[in-house]
């Protein structure tokens, strides 16, 4: 009987790295890290504009809200605290970009199944659709979309750019708006 040995962790890692989807998986990992940074930037933005003190109370409030609810709060509070023409519109544009463009695309990249058996790597999204082909109705339970590794990297860069935009808008609020909203609150 042949001696069968279990693969080592290094063997398994080498196997993963040699898979055709390895580049895509690497890019998705960076996308996840970028998204986490975006969520942290969202928390910082909300913390500053809400100005809740002390720290533990602010943490108790912010850590118990979903990220989409945080974006809604940012829109509402920024509308109330707008300190110059166009600032709120810029905040709303960026939040809408994050929620309506980046988030759905990120969710598809992270949560869809991946088919890498063929030469072209594709994302497989589970669906339940009835559609018409000529005069007949047919059922579809999966949609396949070919995805190049570069598309994932481009999305990651767009997420990082969005963080930069949020931080620029927050900086503008801290420099100009915080003083204006403090004066109007007095």
Which whole number gives the mean pLDDT? 92
Coarse morphology? extended
Uncertain regions: pLDDT < 50 for 5+ in a row?
Answer: 182-186
Q: Which structural category do the helix and sheet elements fall into? A: alpha+beta
Helix amount, in percent?
55-70%
Strand order of the largest sheet: 1-2-3
Give the total of domains: 1
Largest sheet: 3 strands, antiparallel
The secondary-structure element order is: HHHHHEEEH
**CA gyration radius, whole angstroms:** 23 Å
What is the secondary structure topology, with strand pairs?
Layout: H1 9-18, H2 22-50, H3 55-62, H4 67-80, H5 87-111, E1 113-115, E2 122-133, E3 136-146, H6 149-185
Antiparallel strand pairs: 1-2, 2-3
Which tags fit this structure?
186 residues, alpha+beta, 3-stranded antiparallel sheet, 6 helices, 66% helix, extended, disordered C terminus
Describe the structure.
The chain has six helices and three strands; from the N terminus they run αααααβββα. The chain has about 190 residues and is α+β, with helices and mostly antiparallel strands. The chain has one domain (about 20-110, about 150-185). It has a three-stranded antiparallel beta sheet, with helices on one face. β2 and β3 form a beta hairpin. α2 (about 20-50) runs parallel beside α6 (about 150-185) and α4 (about 65-80) runs antiparallel to α5. The longest helix is centred in the C-terminal third of the chain and has 37 residues, at about 150-185. It is extended and about 75 Å long. The protein starts with 8 loop residues before the first helix and ends with a helix. Mean pLDDT is about 90; it is low at about 180-185.
């Amino acid at each position: 009987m042949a001696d069968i040995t279990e693969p080592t962790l290094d063997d398994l890692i080498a196997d993963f790295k040699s898979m055709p989807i390895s580049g895509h998986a690497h890019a998705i990992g960076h996308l996840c890290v970028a998204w986490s940074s975006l969520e942290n930037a969202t928390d910082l933005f909300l913390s500053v504009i809400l100005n809740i003190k002390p720290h533990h109370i602010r943490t108790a409030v912010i850590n118990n809200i979903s990220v989409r609810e945080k974006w809604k709060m940012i829109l509402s509070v920024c509308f109330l605290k707008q300190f110059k023409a166009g600032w709120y519109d810029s905040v709303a544009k960026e939040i809408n970009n994050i929620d309506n463009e980046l988030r759905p695309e990120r969710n598809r990249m992270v949560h869809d199944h991946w088919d890498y058996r063929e030469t072209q790597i594709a994302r497989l999204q589970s669906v339940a659709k009835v559609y018409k082909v000529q005069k007949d109705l047919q059922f579809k339970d999966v949609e396949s979309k070919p995805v190049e590794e570069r598309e994932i990297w481009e999305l990651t860069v767009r997420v990082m750019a969005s963080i930069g935009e949020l931080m620029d808008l927050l900086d503008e609020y801290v420099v100009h708006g915080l003083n204006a909203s403090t004066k109007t609150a007095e």
